[in-house]
Design brief:
Chain lengths: ~150, ~150
DNA sequence: CTGTATCCTTAGGGATACTG
DNA sequence: CAGTATCCCTAAGGATACAG
C-alpha cells in the first residue's frame, strides 16, 4: 500500500509537482517507460540504477493511483502484467526533456546522444510530438483489449 | 556542511538531475528566487511552505556548492547576505515552467494566473526569455560590486 | 536578521527471504 | 516472472534553542 507522503497543499504548482513525482525513483520509472519502452516489472527492476523490489512495487502502485500509469494484463500471457503511461504520464515528457537538456549542459558525465540533444535544442516541439506518438503507438497495440 | 547524498552516477541525465535538485526543497528555493525575487534568508524561511531553518541553511550551502546559486554580501548592508541565481540556476527555468504547466493541467488545487499559463502555452520561448532577463536585471544591480 | 547546534522522529529505501 | 513481506538503518527533515 503506497504511503501518503506529506503533501504541502499550498496552491503552488511546483510544490504539487514535487509532492507528486519529486522523489528519488518515480521519474526514473517514467523514463524507462517513455524512452526505453519498458513495460514489465522485471525490466524496471533490472534498470541501470537498480531500484529495490519493494520500492519499485510501491512506486508502481503510487503512480497508478495517481493516474500517471496504467496496469494492464498482458494480452499475450494473461498471467503477466504490463505498465504503460497514461496521457497524464506522457504529459511529463517535457519535464523529462528539460531535465535532460539541463544535465547535458552542466554535467560532464551525462551522456546524451548528440543527435538527440540537437533535436531537443533545435526542434523541441516536433521532437516531443514525435516521441509522444511513438509511445502512444507502442501502447495502442495492447491497451484497448485488456484493461486490468 | 552539506552532505553528499548518494549519487547514482550512471550517465543518465534524468538521474543526474534528480541527484542534483531532486529533493523536497531545492526547487522551491529556486522558485522563490526566480519567480518571487527573494534574495534573503528570511524571505526563504517565511515562504509559504515553511522550510525548517536547518534544512534551508543546508540547501543554500548545497546549491551554492553546486554552482546553482551565489552568496553575496548585501552592498546596502555589509552584515547581510543575498542569494542569487547563477546562469546554471537560471537554466532551470524551463524545468520549473514545465512542472508548472503540468500541475496546472492536472491538479485542480493548483493556482496559476491565467495570463501566465496562457503565455507558457502560447508563447513559451518568449516568456522564458523575458523571465530570464528580468532575473538577470534584478541581480545585475548588485552582483558586480560584491561577490562574497 | 542570519544563521548554528541539537535533539528527535519518521519515512524512504536497501537487503533479503519468500510466495503465487 | 511478478511481486509481498520483513527487517533494519540511515539520512532527511521537523522543532526548538541559541549565537554573531
Amino acid at each position: 500500500m503506497p504511503k501518503q507522503t506529506k503533501k504541502r497543499d499550498t496552491g503552488c504548482p511546483i510544490a504539487f509537482a514535487l509532492d507528486t513525482f519529486g522523489d528519488r525513483w518515480s521519474l526514473l520509472v517514467i523514463r524507462d517507460m517513455a524512452f526505453k519502452g519498458f513495460q514489465s516489472y522485471n525490466q524496471f527492476l533490472n534498470s541501470e540504477e537498480k531500484i529495490a523490489t519493494n520500492v519499485l512495487a510501491d512506486r508502481l502502485a503510487e503512480l497508478e493511483e495517481l493516474g500517471i500509469i496504467s496496469k494492464l494484463t498482458d494480452p499475450a500471457d494473461g498471467r503477466r502484467h504490463l505498465y504503460v503511461l497514461t496521457s497524464k504520464g506522457i504529459a511529463l515528457l517535457p519535464v523529462l526533456i528539460e531535465m535532460m537538456q539541463w544535465s547535458a549542459q552542466y554535467d560532464v558525465n551525462t551522456i546524451v546522444k548528440p543527435e538527440i540533444l540537437s533535436r531537443i535544442v533545435h526542434d523541441r516541439e516536433a521532437f516531443i510530438t514525435q516521441l509522444r506518438e511513438k509511445i502512444i503507438n507502442r501502447q495502442a497495440l495492447l491497451a484497448p483489449m485488456s484493461r486490468a
